[in-house]
Amino acid sequence: MGRPKKTTKAKEPVRIRERKLANGNRSLYLDIYSKGVRKVESLGVYLVPENTPFDKIQNEHARSVAEKIKSERIIALQNYGIANLDKVMKASMPLLAYLEKYASEGNGLTESTMKGRKFMRRKVEEYLRSTGRLNIAMLEVDLDFCRGFINFLRTAKNRRLKSEERTISNCTGLQTQAVFTAALNTALRDGIIERNPMTLLTSKERFHQQESTRVYLTIDELKRMMATPCDDGELKKAFLFACFTGLRLSDIRTFTWNKVLTTPNDSTRYIRVRMLKTQQVVNVPLSKDALGYLRETEDGDEPIFRLSSAASVIEQRLAEWAKNAGIEKHVTFHVSRHSYATMMLTIGVDIYTVSKLLGHKNVATTQIYAKIIDQKKIDAVNMMDRFFDKDRQA
């Protein structure tokens, strides 16, 4: 009688393995083998030392995510074969891993754009922690997730503010919403997701631009600032120069004589600056007042204005100067840019020219200042009505 044949257990095509990390965590990855081809897929999912009950819950979720992805890979192998597995693997990438990549990659992008991406990524992580679903995959980002994230932003705390009651502003919420939408649009173009669920949100569910109440100096107030001494003479020159050019503080800090040019036909002096925030190039003619605030330097590449590196110091000195000038408004350095915009519109410069002078990408941004001027006109008419009402009552 012959020996019974040995039965060999079929080898699993997809296995979950662990890799120990230097920080004590363990990274989970998939070891995929099919038809002589091996692939290794990092899941971006981690096990942490179980020091607290929450750690245990987090690890259970991480293992659950890994098992779910493993099952999806086995089905994908059966349906599409290992040759088409990469496309399926993309959609299973953890959302945080994708956003980390999105926030760190951006050659040629401005510093403010990169900060916006990193801020958005932090807020998504905070939201995921609040739901206990830290390892959610890209394919799980649906309309309900987007609704939840936007609602979370409406109550999210602003860590930069000391008060526990302060939430992020509507403007910050609007920007974060836009950056997250852009990230998913990139994922859509890269074939990671099939549709951007952020585009399915209704108008009521989204953040919207609110009417802006921008602080600015009237021409009379600007004259008072010019006539009032400032303890920091360099700051006074820089602020007033910004009032006549609309430059932001970041561009004032790096402003040099090499950026002051002359037209060949009529010798008009103007500045050409690539704005640090938007990378937009602006050409702004210089008035005699503006030229008067520029000191001579030995080198054309040397910054003209020597300002404190601490923004808080600048704002404090500006506040004291404004107070001495009898101005009760909250004057920050950026008020100079608002003042330039409203002054240009007040003296009759058309909105499209003002938009170009400010380096706005969209004239709609400039229209905020036009609304301020329109409101001033309405207020003036109302004051006139009240004045004549008194005469009629007499």
UniProtKB/TrEMBL annotation:
Coiled coil: none annotated. GO terms for molecular function: DNA binding. Gene3D superfamilies: 1.10.150.130, Intergrase catalytic core. This is Phage integrase family protein. Belongs to the 'phage' integrase family. GO terms for biological process: DNA integration; DNA recombination. It comes from the Bacteria. InterPro entries: Arm-DNA-bind_5 (IPR035386), DNA_brk_join_enz (IPR011010), Integrase-like_cat_sf (IPR013762), Integrase_catalytic (IPR002104), Integrase_recombinase_N (IPR010998), SAM-like_dom (IPR025269), Tyrosine_recombinase_XerCD (IPR050090). Pfam families: Arm-DNA-bind_5, Phage_int_SAM_5, Phage_integrase. Residues 212-382 form the Tyr recombinase domain. Keywords: DNA recombination, DNA-binding.
